[in-house]
Automatic annotation (TrEMBL):
The keyword Signal appears for this protein: yes
UniProt key word Membrane: no
InterPro entries linked: DNA/RNA_non-sp_Endonuclease_sf (IPR044929), Endonuclea_NS_2 (IPR044927)
Domain (Type VII secretion system protein EssD-like) ranges: 118-249
The protein, known as: DNA-entry nuclease
Record region (Disordered): 73-92
Signal peptide interval: 1-27
Keywords: Signal
Composition skew (Basic residues), residue ranges: 78-88
Length: 280
């Protein structure tokens, strides 16, 4: 084979290989360019939706937790109030008279809660049930002019526990003492509102506090006073050792007191277990 022929053969072989490689690259490029890429956004949308749902649920749980916290706080306050009231009642029964018939309790703070001072239901009155010894146990009210009586007062005929009355140099030893005065609600012969009280317990001690309340109520039909009177007994005694009076005018401190009045009569020794008495 001549040199010229071999050279020609080499050139043709090289051209064939070169052309074959280019065709392969073009085919590969053509195939790649014809492939369409489709992006799936489904998982991303689900994740966004789930995140929004989680945020909404967290807000709902936060609101519920806030509500529960508020309820718990209110219950704690109410429990504290009841405990303080019970403690005060127990302590008052152990006090001894030392010449001062009326004393101030807790700095004259009546300790009514915000709920207890509400006027949402208007004026009202309530008288607690008698206990197992038929003793009066307490009365409460939201006083207003609308409760004040317009009819003439009837004579009192009810005899409360320990009622063994006698005359003294100044009049009768005992009065049928109203827990909530007749002038406020018109309650008269109501066993749940009457106790055996000494003359000086009734007047001037209870009366001067009642007059402060009455003066405020009569000044305006819009005036309200939250009011409670609680008799304080010791053990199973039939005559109360004293009464606790608490009052708070709504929206102001025009009327505000918390006092304890001893159920005593100067010059007389009272047997609180029975109601009998003797000159001392």
């Amino acid at each position: 084979m001549s040199k010229k022929f071999r050279l020609t053969l080499y050139i043709l072989t090289g051209l064939t290989l070169l052309l074959g490689g280019c065709g392969s690259q073009q085919a590969s490029h053509s195939t790649a360019s014809s492939t369409k890429i489709v992006r799936d956004n489904g998982p991303e949308k689900k994740a966004i939706k789930l995140e929004k749902a989680n945020v909404a649920e967290k807000k709902r749980l936060d609101r519920e937790q806030t509500r529960l916290n508020q309820q718990q706080t209110a219950l704690k306050k109410e429990a504290h109030h009841k405990k303080a009231k019970k403690s005060a009642k127990t302590n008052l029964s152990t006090l001894s008279y030392n010449g001062q018939q009326e004393i101030t309790i807790d700095g004259n703070n009546p300790h009514f809660s915000h709920h207890q001072l509400s006027t949402a239901k208007g004026a009202w009155q309530t008288y607690h049930n008698l206990d197992s010894l038929n003793r009066v146990t307490g009365a409460a009210a939201l006083l207003n002019q609308s409760l004040m009586p317009k009819s003439k007062r009837e004579a009192l005929t009810v005899d409360p526990t320990g009622w063994h009355n006698k005359r003294t140099a100044h009049g009768w030893l005992y009065n049928r003492s109203h827990l909530i005065g007749y002038q406020f609600t018109g309650q008269n012969n109501n066993m749940k509102n009457l106790m055996t009280g000494t003359r000086t317990l009734n007047n001037p001690s209870m009366l001067h506090n009642e007059m402060d309340v009455a003066t405020y109520l009569k000044a305006s039909r819009k005036n309200y006073v939250r009011y409670t009177v609680t008799p304080i007994f010791k053990g199973n005694e039939l005559v109360a050792r004293g009464v606790q009076m608490r009052a708070q005018s709504i929206g102001s401190n025009a009327v505000r007191f918390n006092v304890y009045i001893f159920n005593i009569e100067p010059g007389y020794h009272i047997d609180y277990a029975t109601g009998y008495s003797r000159a001392s």
